[in-house]
Design brief:
Radius of gyration of chain B: 13 Å
Oligomer: heterodimer
Distance between the termini of chain B: 36 Å
Number of helices of chain A: 0
Strand content of chain A: over 45%
Largest sheet of chain A: 6 strands, mixed
Radius of gyration of chain A: 14 Å
Shape of chain A: globular
Helix content of chain A: under 10%
Order of helices and strands of chain B: EEEEEEEEEEE
Number of strands of chain A: 11
Order of helices and strands of chain A: EEEEEEEEEEE
Shape of chain B: globular
Number of strands of chain B: 11
Chain lengths: 115, 112
């Protein structure tokens, strides 16, 4: 069974601190997505990581991908309250999906940044 | 471009009723995906459709759930005889020729 696991599931951190969210997946994939979801809202696309070693940064968030280790990280630098949300990674398991491009989502990391 | 439009945003049904969820993909997108998000969980794939065809329904429950994407009009996810366990957020996503999705705002179904 294809699995995408995130840790931690819950994260409470002080403003100004740094932290990393991890996303491990059990299948080969050449593409990984990070999304943000606010309570009761839809998913907002943050990053698309397309190749091994890819690194993308937007503001206080930086995402990276290691396809050999089947690991992606989302690093938060100097957290602010506005980053409080749930963060999901999603894998597009090209080979197993037979070209249907259906995503497998991680369990989500609920981040709370305390003022 | 209005994006992916889902309606209704919120839907309340009594046990045993039918729920119909609609999704209009982005203009030019012919691929539609439905995902379900149970409370406090991630999104789970349900079904993938192209115009007039169901391509992959491996995530759909075997009974009471059906989906269609007609030649004209929105994609419809239909749940018959709803039960409390069907309460969830249902998200639709569409894509064109690339692999990237655009998600709709979701329909939050509450079964009472």
């Amino acid at each position: 069974e294809l699995k995408v696991e995130q840790n931690p599931l819950f994260l409470s951190m002080q403003e100004g601190k740094n932290y990393t969210i991890y996303c491990n997946y059990s299948t080969t994939s050449d593409r990984l997505y990070w999304y943000r979801q606010d309570p009761g809202k839809s998913l907002e696309s943050l990053f698309v990581l397309l190749s091994n070693g890819a690194v993308k940064q937007e503001g206080r968030l930086m995402a990276s991908l290691d396809t050999k280790a089947r690991l992606s990280t989302l690093h938060i630098t100097a957290a602010v309250h506005d980053l409080s949300a749930t963060y999901f990674c999603a894998v597009d398991p090209l080979r197993e999906s037979s070209g249907t491009y259906k995503y497998i989502f991680g369990t989500g990391t609920r981040l709370k940044v305390l003022a | 471009n209005a994006g992916v439009m889902q309606n209704p945003r919120h839907l309340v049904r009594r046990r045993g009723q039918e729920a119909r969820l609609r999704c209009s993909p982005m203009k030019g997108h012919s691929h539609v995906y439905w995902y379900r998000q149970l409370p406090e969980e991630g999104l789970k794939f349900m079904v993938y459709l192209q115009k007039e065809n169901i391509i992959d329904e491996s995530g759909m429950p075997k009974e009471r759930f059906s989906a269609e994407f007609p030649k004209e009009g929105p994609s419809i996810l239909r749940i018959q005889q709803v039960v409390r366990g069907d309460s969830a957020a249902y998200f639709c996503a569409s894509r064109g020729t690339s692999r990237g999705y655009t998600f709709g705002s979701g329909t939050r179904l509450t079964v009472v």
